[in-house]
Structure formats: C-alpha cells, structure tokens
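Two proteins were folded this term; both appear here.
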Amino acid sequence: MNISGSNLPAMAGTGQSGEVMSAQLAKKQQKADGQAALALIESAGNTAPAKSTTATMGNNINVYV
C-alpha cells in the first residue's frame, strides 16, 4: 500500500490554504445537496392530482342477512 501522498492535490503555501480548500469543497457539496433536494421536491410535486369525491359516495351500504 503506497501512502506517499503523491496522488494528493498540491496546496500552495502553508497554514490556512488547507482550511480554505476544505471550506470550498464543503460549500460545493452543500450546493450539490441543495440542488438534489430541490429536484426531489419538484419531482414529488409533479404527481397526478387526487380524484375528487362526490357527496353521495359511501351513502349506500349493501347489507345481506
């Protein structure tokens, strides 16, 4: 297993650059999550409307003795 770090992205400078990069990645992920949530909400709203019921529905009950 190679853990030399050669595949990691290079960060210019030291100190806060890592924190800035981490914050930028977190912001991108939050935007992607928000867009996915909005798409899910919009797709849920595109369902067919429920059938309207009439006032006489359920008034007759068939009872066999």
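Next, the second protein.
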Amino acid sequence: MNTPSTLFLLSRIESPMGGMLLVTDARQVVRALDFADHEAHLHRGLREHYGRVELAEASPPAGIARALARYFAGTLDALDALPTETAGSPLQRRVWAALRGIPAGTTTSYGKLARELGFDDPRAAIAIGTANGANPIAIIVPCHRVIASSGDLKGYAWGLPRKRWLLEHEKAISPQSATVETAALPGF
C-alpha cells in the first residue's frame, strides 16, 4: 500500500548570502527555508518530518518574498509576522517556537534557552542545541541567534560564516574583516 505524499510548493529566492529554497504549503505557510547549496539537507529534513513529499515549483509568495527582501535591506523585524509550521518532535517544536521570541539584534545561549524552557539540568543545553540544529526554517526561525555562553559562535547547519553574517547584519555582534567574510560566503 502506497502512503500518499504531501504536496508542498518550492520557490527559489536570491539573497545576499546566496540562493535560497523556500518551501510553503497551499496556505502560504513556511514549512522550510534552506540555502540552495544545501539542497540535500532540505530534502532529507522534509522526508524526516513529513515522509513522502512532492515539491511543485512555484513563484515565491509575494508577502514572504517582500518580507525577506525587507529583512535583508535592514528592516530586521520584517520576518516576525510570517506564519511558519513544522513537524518534528515535541521538544523540537518547543525550541523552534522559543527561537521566534528572540528579538533581532540579540543573542541567547543554549543554556539560557534551556532554562527558559524549564530545564534545570545544565546537560539539557545539549538537547536544546540538537533541536536548534535541526531547525528546518533558516533565518525566519532564528536559530542563528543562539550562541555559546562564552560568546563563541557554535554550530549552524548552514555554516558559521552565514551565522556570523546574519548576526553582524542584525548588529548583534561586531563585524569581522570584510575579506574574511566575503571569502567564506558563496554567492559573492
């Protein structure tokens, strides 16, 4: 017996950090946002969360495309109202919901996020970090705003240069030399 597949729409969007792959449902709710050079990551995540998925190429929904363009142009709260929906474990969904509450221009640590979610055991930061790293919606669900308690940039599914770029764009951290940044980012 064949399991029916879930139909999502796949759109391609350009960004200052390279091409992006936007997955939405028929209601224009964001289900995934990934970088084009991580397409295998996108497909693996969709299979893990939804089983069989069919992706139909589509133009990006105008409201989402405008919000992303405004964000990259400097209106950092432009993504706050975009609707998202994800599958995943209950812990993952709790973490991803909490990430949406971290304002642009700020960061938090894995341990602090764990405590805010009600975990007292310091080892919970590891589970929070794992859930954070499994986030399927780049930028809109701002997992890039979670850093080590030391202030070090740790782990980002799409690469530390992109995490640094996003945090510098949001003025959450001081810029590094432009030569280092642009040499590491695709699309420049």
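The beta strands are 6-13, 20-24, 30-35, 53-57, 108-109, 146-147. DSSP finds seven helices and six strands in the chain. These notes refer to the second protein only.
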